[in-house]
Predict the 3D structure of the following.
Amino acid sequence: ETGVTQTPRHLVMGMTNKKSLKCEQHLGHNAMYWYKQSAKKPLELMFVYSLEERVENNSVPSRFSPECPNSSHLFLHLHTLQPEDSALYLCASSQKASGANVLTFGAGSRLTVL
Amino acid sequence: GDSVTQMEGPVTLSEEAFLTINCTYTATGYPSLFWYVQYPGEGLQLLLKATKADDKGSNKGFEATYRKETTSFHLEKGSVQVSDSAVYFCALSDDYKLSFGAGTTVTVRA
């Protein structure tokens, strides 16, 4: 496989469920990201793991919990979500270096919270 | 903080029409600028980029010029095709984080 792979592509969950989104990159990059894409809103950066350092957006609720066990894998653990959390969750990776930082995105995981 | 503002859509065009999508930015440093495209059911793909003032990025017939004096990075294509129907995102990067605009939906009709 090449590029950035996200699973599952679609997920429906109740507010009391616990689930996880998975992302894997095969590009040898050293930074990975979670973005939230909601209709008619700018993409929201949720979390960045860069060279094993986690940077997060302070407005992300604690019901979203990231995990990055190594430079190729990134998870987003979900628990007690709300209906407004329904969105497309995009994973991306990049090679952190000087100059333009080009992100490669996965196809996304479409989450619906009932 | 750094931010990007792009024109709201949706934009509907006929094939071979001229397309322009406006994008302006606010940044404290000297960011790199990007246009990403998202086709239906897919993630975002890099369309073009520019890393310094007066640079012109180009790809697949699309062009955008980094204008520092007007803090703009407008996307243009002279003759669109049905296959250009997608959502287009302007973005800027300072260090390793990207800030995106809200996206502009473009529909090209045959």
